């Protein structure tokens, strides 16, 4: 059971005391197990007649002697199996296994991979909780991508400790509970996507925000209107209320996507004519009143406009 996943982690479970020959042997062992369980052709190049550092999906560090495997990139590779927590974690910098069919609980053992910078497990079938230790140990993590899995439970507040994190994608899972206030303290965070979960409460102020299809309530935070670098704001399909500030063009000069649809926003729609980069405007199904600003026709970059049902 889980031979593919067991061998997958085994590839990256390489002691720094061993040589490149051990890396090659681990990769070939993975291939042998993999070929018995899948029809993927991604490992055709994996054979001892060539250096393992040029095998498809394998990246080595050129600075180490002997040469070490530092990354495994096998997205869309028909990988099927369970990521077993019994196997020691990798010491790689990058693990990209998105768009496969990996199942079972989120591999808690990965939290010991203290050098990891990119963890991409998007579009799999992983479940279980996000380990609290992930935020306490993976201090060099820059990208955490878990979109479209079956992960449950709360978002651990410890994720706020990831001071180097730039991209956090937890959308389309089964997360629930309050959004931790610590998520608003990321000094480097540029993109956050939590949409299509069962989250509640208020959300922190960020540079790029996607929180559609949750259960957020209350007044839209005034602090959000002060994020002058914001390019994407998507908070549709919630129960938020408030009004759009009159000087929105001054507040968001870089705005490209502005989505407040299916909430409880009210008041008038102000002039948006100076949002020259705006391509998507979703204000439908709220409680806006008054007339549509005639200056709406000046939005030359606008491609999608939805303002019905107000």
Record the SSE blueprint.
Elements: H1 3-12, H2 20-35, E1 58-61, E2 68-73, E3 80-82, E4 94-96, E5 101-105, E6 118-120, E7 125-127, H3 133-137, E8 143-145, E9 152-153, E10 167-169, E11 174-178, E12 191-193, E13 198-201, E14 209-210, E15 215-219, E16 232-234, E17 239-243, H4 248-251, E18 257-259, E19 264-268, E20 280-282, E21 287-289, E22 304-306
Parallel strand pairs: 2-4, 3-5, 4-6, 5-7, 6-8, 8-10, 9-11, 10-12, 11-13, 12-14, 13-15, 14-16, 15-17, 16-18, 17-19, 18-20, 19-21, 20-22
Antiparallel strand pairs: 1-2
Helix pairs in contact: 1-2
Describe this entry's structure for a reader.
This protein is of the alpha/beta class. The protein has a domain of 102 residues. Helix content is 11%, strand content 25%. The chain is built from 4 helices and 22 strands. It has a 12-stranded mixed β-sheet with strand order 1-2-4-6-8-10-12-14-16-18-20-22, with no helix packed on it. A 7-stranded parallel β-sheet has the order 9-11-13-15-17-19-21, with no helix packed on it. A 3-stranded parallel β-sheet has the order 3-5-7. Strand 1 and strand 2 form a beta hairpin. The longest helix has 16 residues. It starts with a helix and ends with a strand. The N terminus is likely disordered.
